[in-house]
Structures are given as structure tokens and as C-alpha cells.
Amino acid sequence: MRVVIAGQGYAGLPLAVRAAEAGHRVVGYDVDERRIKRLAVGESYVEDVPADRLRPLLESGSYLPSAEPSDVAGFDVAVITVPTPLRDGVPDLSHIEASAALLAQHLRPGATVVLESTAYPGTTEELVAPLLEEGSGLTAGRDFHLGYSPERIDPGNPAWRLENTPKLVSGIDPAALAAVEGFYGGLVERTVPVSSCRQAELAKLLENAFRHVNIALVNELAMFAHDLGIDAGEAIDAAATKPFGHLRFTPGPGVGGHCLPLDPSYLPWRAERALGRSFRLVELANDVNGRMPDYVVRRLAAALDERRRPVEGARVLLLGLAYKRNTGDARETPAARIAGLLVRMGAEVRAADPHVVVGVHVPEPVLPGQRAAEHDPPGDPFAAVRLVEASREELAAADAVVLLADHDEFDYAAVVAHSRYVLDCRRRLGGAAVVEAL
């Protein structure tokens, strides 16, 4: 089949490559021409899609990256995998709307459209369907199939990939469900049919909210434990030995990516708008997790003060800009907030990350100091951050080192041996100079 994947980010690019490997003729459409240019020459910016997997598909013509709207014409299946950010706490579905409007211009009878982007329950039928119908003159269910299948990508996870992660599938009617399941059934090992698009949309939000709330629990626990003089890490390790009724979560300097800091907020927004009620647990989790970067900075400032070194003028080295270990995914990374606070307090902030590639891994504002001026928002916290290698000289010169993302590539023996003070936010280090932040 001719397949269009709208959006070539962390969800869309792996899906496009997998569909091409399965024998489909795939157009990977994205409005970001920088991305398309890199993909066209076989350069991947997603760890889950190495260049040696991408290039044969380009050479065979089974995968075409494109920013040209006319290239989406003639599709049999189209999948929308675009971002759904929050703007002032309100879901911004403009990327979905733009994708649906474009696909509508080329929609043909018998084609299938699937939404993968995270959104509130009802988005597929209340927003996408009318846009497709208005732009095409066709009717969903009668003339074309429409469904929802939430992405479940975990960047950098070697065990659970697109192919072996169970895939939720849904449709607006039985025929649409059959079409959606038939497409994904050729790409993944197991599909899980869900009775309606609303059910699948809610299931996705539940998955994200579950992690968000439990991470908030251990984050708040860690802050209280520190003030009580108790080792939260040991308590978490002890609790994790229980073989039933407990799942292990670990604290950190804040949540990042798209799924946690953004997606769970769709639940309270939808509950308030549709029912006039608050979704208190998710709102509390937002508050706790959102305050973690500030807590890290307060701990660092107190430690420097104890050493008679004010934050103003101090040299601070941040290890890890990505929001999670062993990936270059810096979307919504807590490192941005931490760096911004330290810069405003007058610190000389440097950062090292072997995975983050400036201008590629972060879709809109990219990373420190090397972005084009036209993309610099006012007050950009990364503008004053210098990117460096985590060398022995940099470690020794820093008044404080803060471990934010515990990438395996860092030389932790060197960090312990050469740093004067280390604030460890990931419980990765030990030694006289190391203090656990959480």
C-alpha cells in the first residue's frame, strides 16, 4: 500500500521505517525542512532508527521523506503522529488540525486515516472526522475508514520496540477497526482491539497519568525523607522487594518528554471543560513534578553556600541535558529549567551530553548556544550555557557538578575522582564528594 506518516519525530519516524520494511511505499511527511534534509541523506536523529536501517529504504525508494504537501497524494493509509503541546495549560491541537486538513485534500474512497497523537477522549470523532469530511466531501464510515491507535514509543528502550510492544487499535465502526488492525497487524507482533476511539484515547491518557502520579509520589517522598534525615533510596529499594501490589518508581530532577509533563494534563482539561469538575490527582502530580527542578537548584545553592561559594559567579557543570538516560530526547527536559534558574542567579553554567545533537533532537527551541538567531525566544535559558565535554579538566574546574541524566557514556570514575562536589540526582554515584539530591 501507499502509506503516509504525517510527522517524522520520535513516533512517526520509527513507524514510517517499519512500514517501509514491511513492504509498503511510505512517504514520511514533515513540515520541518531541516529534518527532511537530514533524512534525505540518510542521517537519523532518532536513536531507535540508526542510519544503517534508514539508508537501504531510501536507496530502494520504499521510503521518501518529504516536506512537499503534494507528495501525500494517492495514499491508502495515512497516520497522524504530530505533537500535541500545551499552550498556557490548554491543549494545542493545531498540528493535528493542519495534518487532517492536508490529508483531506487527497482523501479517496476506501482509504484509512489513523490518529496516533495523544489527545483528549473524543478528538478522533469530534475534531479529525469533521475536518476530513469537510475537506474531502466524503463521509467517515461510509466512504473512508477512521481510527485511533496511540503511540507507545519509549525512546532508547532496547527491550520494548515498536515491533514487540502491544498496539492498541480502534475504529469509529467495525469496518474501520478491521482496516486499522489489518494495517498494524503487518507491522507489530500483537494488536489489541479496543471497542471505540474514545476508549483508546482514554487508555493512552491513563498510561501516562499512571507514571506521572507515581513519579510524583516518590519525588515528594524523597524531599520529605531528606528533611527527616532518612535515605529515600534505601526505602524505595526495600519496598521494591515486595512481589505483589507494588511497582518500583524512582525520583528524579523532573519529568520530561511529551508523555509525562504534557499529556496527563489533557485529563483535567477535559474534565473541567466537559463536566465542570477538577481532576485533582493529576493536578497535584503536575505541581509536584513541576517543582523538582527548583528543588534541585535549592539543594545546589545550599551546598555551595555551605562551602562559602555563592551561586553567583560559581561554575556549574550539568551532566545530561536529555530528560532520560541513553537518549538524545530533550523535549520538555528539566535541565532547561535548572539551567535557566542557575543562569538567572548568576552562575556560569556548562553542560555535557553525548547524545543530544543541537538543533535536531528538540523540535522547536533547540539546545544551548548554537541555534539560529531567528529561533531564539526572548530570555532563552540555554543561550548562556556552554556545551563542553565531561573531561577531567572540566570536572576539576567546576565548583559543582550536577548529574541530571545518567548516560552510560559518562566516565563516572572520573566524575568521582576529579569533582570537588557532585549533586547526584540519579543515585548513580558514590564517594566523599557525592551527595544524593533525591
Can you offer a commentary on this structure?
Helix 6 links the parallel strand 9 and strand 10. Helix content is 38%, strand content 14%. By secondary structure, the chain is of the alpha/beta class. Helix 4 packs parallel to helix 5 and helix 11 crosses helix 12. The strands form 3 sheets. It has an 8-stranded mixed sheet, sandwiched between helices.
Q: Which overall shape is indicated by the principal axes computed on the Cα atoms?
A: globular
Strand order in the largest sheet: 3-2-1-4-7-8-9-10
Q: What fraction of residues sit in β-strands?
A: 5-15%
Distance between the termini: 50 Å
Largest sheet: 8 strands, mixed
Q: Rounded to an integer, what's the Rg over CA atoms? A: 23 Å
Query: Which class do the helix and strand fractions yield?
Result: alpha/beta
Give the helix proportion (percent range).
Answer: 25-40%
Assembly type: single chain
What are the segments in which pLDDT stays under 50 over at least 5 consecutive residues? Answer: 358-379
What do the pLDDT scores average to?
90
Number of helical segments with 4 or more residues: 14
Give the H and E element order: EHEHHEEEEHEHEEHEHHHHHEHEEHEHEE
